[in-house]
Amino acid sequence: MKFGLKDKKRILYVLLAVFMMGFSLSFLIRVNFGTDPCSAMNLGIARHLHLSFGNWQVLLNLILFLIVIAFDRSQIGWGTLANMILIGYTVDFFRWLFDLFLPDNAFSSLSVRILVLIPALFLFIVAAAVYMAVELGTAPYDAIVFIISNKFKKIPFRLIRITWDMTACLIGFLLGSTIGVVTLMMAFLLGPVIAWVKEKINILLI
């Protein structure tokens, strides 16, 4: 398979986006205002299974990946693999650094948590938007939504997406994860930001 300059740019954008999603997510977890629905669910399950976030994320993604292969391989790309493997382990790495170098009360102050939250949330949303805008494959968690939507075409896609995310939030909540302001902001801000970033990315890829 040959890669042109445009393809190489797209792969670079995906790798950078996935790394920045993991980096910013590690801060969102630490400030404890909530995360995206998928991460909230995975944090809760990983805690109860006594696995690292990265290890559980890979295991779940492998299960979902097999479902995606069976029902809609068009959702799979290089970005799918990067998302499956790198985000969770990037989070694990930076959480390990936090434990190693930061005092236990580093994020105990509300003002500090808010100051960290704002850039971390902004970075995560933009990175997620870049990842989706480049269109090099869909994360397994998101691909399942498209598969369900294609099977039940009479049900609005937005309703399926909301139900999927709310189910993940409920699982996370029941297992002790924080469902907070960040979770709501992800739901409402990600769509408009993706549209804006996609327009800019298309210009850069020309």
Automatic annotation (TrEMBL):
Give the highest taxon in the source lineage.
Answer: Bacteria
TM helices/strands, residue ranges: 12-33, 53-71, 78-98, 110-134, 179-197
Q: Which InterPro entries match?
A: YczE/YyaS-like (IPR038750)
Which keywords does UniProt give here? Membrane, Transmembrane, Transmembrane helix
Family matches, as PANTHER family: INTEGRAL MEMBRANE PROTEIN, INTEGRAL MEMBRANE PROTEIN-RELATED
By what name is this protein known? YitT family protein
What organism does this protein naturally occur in? Anaerocolumna chitinilytica
